[in-house]
Sequence to fold (193 residues):
Amino acid sequence: MFEPNNQEQEVQLNSEDVQPTEAVGSDADYTGSGGDDVKVNKPRKRKNLENEKLRADLKDLNDQLLRNRAEFENYRRRTEKEKLSSVSNGIARAVEALLPALDILITAAGADCSDAEYKKGIELIGSKFMSSMQALGITEIPAEGKPFDPTLHNAVSKEEAESVESDTIVRVLQKGYRLGDRVIRHATVTVAQ
Fold:
C-alpha cells in the first residue's frame, strides 16, 4: 500500500468540491494554488441545457399523454353512444316490422263478433303485444284531441268539427308509436278545419 510520507503533500478532496463530470478536458475548470486543493466543476451551461432539454421532453410527453387520454375518453364515449344507438335502431326496426300485425289485431278486436270467447282471445293477444312493446320502451303517440304536430302526426284529411279548435286532431286512423324521442311510425290522423 501507498502511504504518504512527510515529504509529499497529501491531496484532499471534499465531496462538495468534486462533482461528477462526463469528460475532463477543455470544458472542465481546474482551480487550485500550488496543488493544495483541486476543484473539478462541471460547466453550468451544459447542465442547464440538459435540464432544459429534459424539462421540454417531459412537457412534450405529458402533453402527448393528456392528448391520448382525451382521445381515448372521446372514443369510449363515442362507442358507448354508438352501442346504445345500435340497440335502439334494432328495437325500432323490429317493432316497425311487427306494427302491421298489431294493426290487424287492433282492427280485429274492434270488429263485431258473435263469439265472445274469440273476441276476448284477440283482445288478450293485443294486450300482451302492447305490454311487450312497453317493456321495450315503445309508447303510443297521443293524438285524439291533441293539437296537430307534424313531427308526430301525419294528417291525411281535414273535416269540419263544431266546438273544436282548428288544427286539433278529431280522429285517429292509424296509431303512431315512438321509442323515446324517436318516432317509429307517425300517427295517421284527421284534423279539424
Summary: The helical segments are 44-110, 116-135. The longest strand covers residues 153-159. The CA atoms of residues 72 and 78 lie 10 Å apart.
